[in-house]
Amino acid sequence: MRLVSLISILVAGSVTLLTSHSSAPQDRPTFKASSELAVMHVSVRDQTGRYVTGLTRDAFTVIDDGRPQTLEMFSADEVPASVGFLIDNSNSMRPNRDRVIASSVAFARNAHPQDEIFVLTFNETVRQAWGPRVVAEMEPAAFSLAMSDAIIARGMTAVYDGIAAGLSRLERAKHTRQVLIAVSDGGDNASKVTLDDVLKRVHQSNATVYTVALIDPLMRDGSNPRLLRRLARVTGGESYQPRKEHEIAEAFQNIARDIRNAYTIAYTPTRAAGDAGPARRRTVRVYVRSNDGRVLRVRTRDGYFEHAGEERQ
User: What residue ranges do the domains of the chain occupy?
Assistant: First the structure.
């Protein structure tokens, strides 16, 4: 977190490059220019943790690779998201299985109607348990049944493979707002993908990763909550470690609230002469000015890779 005088921000989301056209669907902001845009989803909190609403475009300042940027789009409306649940299906999940299922169903029930949801489970194998399906077309009972059938809580743990698979699926997501919710103890004893490979993929991804660390007291030695906290931090997400059963549902509720309370801003990155060349990572800082003098706090993904991806809804 970084405080700059009385100004700071909380960015809970990703930085996405896309090519936009006037024919964009109506479930996301429409960009009339045909240009490469950097799109960020920004939510702002005060010192008490409350989300700050009602901000206007001129409250936001974006610095991209040291250069001030001009915002071409600003929206305070909730933007639909593509949300992937990545749920540990190994032995360590057994004590919390039912609570995780119930919390996931409640999350989907209260999500934006145009949100896209999919579920991957992993033990030593990564499997698709649900979707992707648009929330408005989902039956909560069918979703709950699918989760119950898929989460058997046995076997070993390939969390690195699961994270890599979740990020790969989000690359084909419907929306530019992309979220991965990882539920695990963070320990790994079965992955083919290495930790270094996973961290590289996370760093390059446009997804915001939220993590819920469920630590079995009897199997604590095999857990790695530090990894889960790291994944959330570098992507602008949040990490939770519930210690009581009811705190699992609260973690899911907090994640849902964080996703919904976001501003969307976009700009065409200003590049200096000589910037052309191989794709590289650009550093971004976003600042928000408070009209009433409140101190605003910051949590942010601090950059993006400048190569353009495919246009998404």
Answer: 15-78+262-305, 81-260
Q: Find the helix packing angle between 245-260 and 97-109, rounded to 10°.
A: 30
pLDDT profile of the chain (313 residues), mean per 10: 35 49 38 60 90 92 94 91 97 92 96 97 97 96 96 95 98 94 95 95 90 81 90 91 94 95 89 66 88 85 65 42
Which amino acid makes up residue 78?
E
Q: State the Cα torsion 39-44-50-52 to the nearest 10°.
A: -100
Residue 160 main-chain phi, psi, to 5 deg? -65, -45
Please give the angle made by the CA atoms of 279, 169 and 26, to the nearest 5 degrees.
Answer: 85
d(CA 209, CA 123): 19
In the prediction, which pLDDT does 300 show?
73
Q: Burial-class residue 284 by CB neighbours within 10 Å (0-12, 13-18, 19+).
A: buried
The third-level CATH classification (topology) of the domain covering 81-260 is: Rossmann fold (3.40.50)
3-class SS letters over 114-181:
CCEEEEEEECCCEEEEEEEEEHHHCCHHHHHHHHHHHCCCCCCCCHHHHHHHHHHHHCCCCCCEEEEE
- Rounded to 10 degrees, the C-alpha dihedral 129/134/136/137 comes to -60
Preceding omega of 242 cis (within 30 degrees of 0)? no
